[in-house]
Amino acid sequence: MNNLSFEELNLSGQILEAVHKLGYRNPSKVQQQVIPKAMENKDIIVKSQTGSGKTASFAIPLCESIDIEERDPQALVLTPTRELCVQVKDEIANIGRLKRVRAAAVFGKQPFSDQVRELKQRTHIVVGTPGRTLDHIERGSIVLDKIKYLVIDEADEMLNMGFIDQVEDVIKKLPKNRVTMLFSATISEEIDKLCGKHMKDPMKIEVNPERITTERIKHICYKVGYEYKFNLLKDILILENIDSSIIFCSTKENVDEVSSKLNAQGFPCDKLHGGMMQKDRLDVMNAFKRGKFRILVATDVAARGIDVQDVSHIINYDIPMEKESYVHRTGRTGRAGKQGKAITFVNNYDNRFLLQIEEYLGFNLEREEIPSKDLVISLKKDFLDKLNTKPVLKKDKSSELNKQVYKIYINAGKKKKIRPGDIVGAILSVEGLTSDDIGIIDIQDGFSYIDILNGKGSKVLDGLNTDITIKGKSVKAQRAKK
Ligand code: AMP
Q1: Which CATH superfamily is domain 6-206 in?
Q2: CA-CA 20 to 30 A from 108: which of 88, 140, 146, 363?
Q3: Is residue 3 over pLDDT 80?
Q4: Residue 202: which of 145, 133, 152 has the closest Cα?
């Protein structure tokens, strides 16, 4: 089964090109197994972990099977957290971009009306957290008649977070004649029951559960009294000369405290927890993904499914109380063939959690001695110098794909009663343009975005700014910044 290529998976040209432009050379194990079955429209239960490429394993077949002309959503993807919701939507949008697949993300703590406006445009795939998705369904802003695919992502986390009733409420409203795919890192009895109730003769796919190993991640721990933890944290950051690190705390109060103390003492960092405004959460996550700052202090909100490249160190400032959580947290490092280090602080009260984690992992965390003050002092300048230099920004993985797409902004939108057909008509009047050159059209109230493919963007821009009108009116067009 090893080493199938994307070409051998019978993907269409537009999807294949997008996948290659995203830098995916060969399908991952989970993709090799899931994509063919999903394309045969089989119900599947997939036991796999984050970081295995599982998002693309459902995003690729979904994008393949979307009928682009259909206005109402054809697929619904449920995810447990808002960050994951946005990440999954972005992955789908990237993979489907050249085919013009439109995906929308719906999640709590963001204005309902913005999402309704988004959903009113042609939307092929909706990605949502369960509560907000249910709200939209009940208010009629997500039409379900055409749904052919349901994906439940991170099902075990849905259970942990108490979302399973809402997930079931959503499922009950969906057309019965659909394909259901469920992804989970662990398949508990409850998940089995859920599958038994809502899936048709599901096939089970298990991608050799990559045990956390000591090959890619060095696991160490420090025994430290509660009141010395913060000082040890500073010393460890210096000693390890960290490049990029997530520091996990058990509560948002601890995150607030640790991050403000670090900032006050010259260790610039940012924070992420569920009590923050949604926009701030997304901004912080994006900035960390791009490598704009090196230290993120977070609760488990950041542990699950979130894909950040090159996190060199995970520090469990507070030991996780659930053994699975240790695996999710430390899975943020040592990704994509890189080496990582996981450091856990343990005080006397934490011993039983440590034992449970070690039993679950099947190996012991290495006990390290607290570093001497002299050693830390001798290394401090180097680290502070590093903190004060600007990190090199990480490349956005969709940048190659974006080069294929020329995004145009025009100063006319819904208020001027512009419809996609009007824009298409105008663009087709540009010499040499065909409908194959037009990508996604996004019409907002006062403005619109148009994706132009095949290197013909500047031609369209010139046309729109000279003689071409939309609905008989001339418009101002410019290359979009984003
Ligand atoms: P996931 O398991 O979906 O969180 O994916 C983990 C990371 O792997 C993401 O950054 C994906 O963009 C990336 N990825 C997915 N499929 C592939 C592939 N076939 N080759 C290389 N990277 C991939």
Answers
A1: P-loop containing nucleotide triphosphate hydrolases (3.40.50.300)
A2: 146
A3: no
A4: 152
217-387 and 405-479, same CATH topology: no
CA angle 18, 21, 23 (to 5 degrees): 120
User: Could you tell me the distance, in angstroms and rounded to a whole number, from the CA of residue 58 to the centre of ligand 1?
Assistant: 12
Nearest to 259 by CA among 240, 292, 284: 284
The pLDDT tens digits for 391-415 are 777 777 788 888 888 999 999 998 9
**What distance in angstroms lies between residue 41's CA and the mean position of ligand 1's atoms?**
22
Residue 303: closest CA among 282, 265, 333, 267:
333
Q: What are the strands of the beta sheet with 245-248, ordered from one edge?
A: 270-272, 295-298, 245-248, 313-316, 340-346, 217-223, 366-367
Give the pLDDT of residue 332: 79
Q: How far apart are CA 481 and CA 407, in angstroms?
A: 8
The confidence score (pLDDT) of residue 307 equals 74
Query: For residue 90, which phi and psi values (nearest 5 degrees)?
Result: -65, -40
Interhelix angle 164-173/130-139, nearest 10 degrees: 30
Strand ranges in 102-157 using DSSP code E only, listed in sequence order: 103-106, 125-128, 149-152
- At 130-181, the pLDDT tens digits run 999 999 999 999 999 999 999 999 999 898 889 999 999 999 999 999 999 9
C-alpha separations of 376 from 233, 234, 368 in Å: 11, 9, 15
Number of the ligand 1 atom closest to the C-alpha atom of 26: 19
The whole-number average pLDDT for the span 94-119 is 94
The CATH superfamily label for domain 217-387 reads: P-loop containing nucleotide triphosphate hydrolases (3.40.50.300)
Cα–Cα distance for residue pair 462/216, rounded to 1 Å? 52
Secondary structure element (H or E) that encloses residue 407, with its range? strand 406-410
The topology (CATH level 3) of 405-479 is Alpha-Beta Plaits (3.30.70)
- Give the Å distance between the CA of 24 and the centre of ligand 1: 7
Q: Closest residue (by CA) to atom 8 of ligand 1?
A: 53
Cβ pair 31, 57 in contact under 8 A: yes
Q: Return the domain boundaries, the chain.
A: 6-206, 217-387, 405-479
Contacts of 23 (CB under 8 A, 6+ apart): 397, 400
